[in-house]
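<discrete_fold_record>
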Amino acid sequence: MRNLTMLTDLYQLTMGQGYFNEKKHEQRAVFDVFFRPNRLITYSVAAGMEQVADYLEHLRFSEDDIAYLRSLGCFSEDFLAYLAELRFTGDVVSVREGEMVFPYEPILTVTAPMIEAQLVETAILTFVNHQTLIATKAAKIVDAAGGGVMEFGLRRAQGADAGIYGARAAMIAGCVGTSNVLAGKMFGVPVSGTMAHSWVMNFPSELEAFRAYARSFPDGCLLLVDTYDTLRSGVPHAIEVFKELRAAGHEPKGIRLDSGDLAYLSKEARKMLDAAGFEDAIICASGDLDENSIASLKEQGAKIDSWGVGTKLITSADLPALGGVYKLAAVYENGVEIPKIKLSDTTEKITNPGVKEVYRLYDRKTDKAIADYITRAGETVGEGAPLELFHPVDTWKKKTVTDFRVRNLRVPLVKNGKRVSDMVPLHELSAAFKAEKARFWEEYTRRDMPHIYKVDLSPALHALKSKMVEEGGEQ
């Protein structure tokens, strides 16, 4: 694990110097991570918590780090000496990776001495914002495809870490494999890939290129057929090689289309493969795909079995940032919680104050999610009594639920600076995401004009927020 302690913004350290000078650096503070709504994101798939836990456990400034900070000329020697001994000693609760999450609800909360909680903001947002963004994009692509999506984006990712951890996030959200060999090794996930156009171009003919590849991989032969002319040469040459493989006792895997009219080409290629007796040969498509183009291809009746999705997945091309934020929710004075709130002329930017819990309510008859419910810490949500839900802004919008079950969405991740949750294999995270997504009505997750899922506040939390807004937020 790399030491990423210096992966922070300078103002975290200048604030740290100020807290240190004012003797407020050890005051216990509570910060929430959440994201605001966006027209392209009505739900997200949480990811990145594994990296958060590793980062916090390994947080420490090296001698070189301290020397560099000293060279900036803005930190006192007593503060630098304090940093040299600093370790993360706080607590973190978070949703599980692969959890469906929604705007405004705290998906991760840090409780720690102020200087520690402030220092780790930047790195935590880096991990959670990026991986949650890519997992969310991947979920939409997998949903459009109905499965069979492979992540092919490494060469277009914004850097090596983005490629590695983007692949990880994509696997959590349902991708079945990645082209990224390092990600495959690091996370124990399937890797896939065959050939590039350069392979075909490096032989005297397309047919010779296909035969050479088949000699090396007789039991995994998937041929790229669009280098020259897909239907006039590529597919016919592939069929010729497939017949030779079958005669030698091997079965071909299929073909890949990377350009052109994928709907038309796949339908024609399917006819040709079937006519030649290769009904089980798959057709894989790639080439600047996303959830919209995949949905369109399926509507056109494209005969595509698997999808290699690269650029638009790994960069989340239509939404390059999640916009998750890290906001102070409370501090403790003499062991007593003092709620904090950020006010704004923009209603959507007013934060929810205090220490909170996040619950999900499910209808017992259908096992479908009804709403998420944010409460003050210590409140209980009984499953027997009727519960009135109301919109946190348009409070006249109300709904009473009765026959429901409750689940606390968050679990301890770090306690006293040490991780307390086991690392979960990606295939288990992916299975958990798939199962939870099935508990949401399609109206909430559909690609076009989805319904807005309810995230409501308890009466006690709503009353606290309203009172603090009226009083201007000052204590």
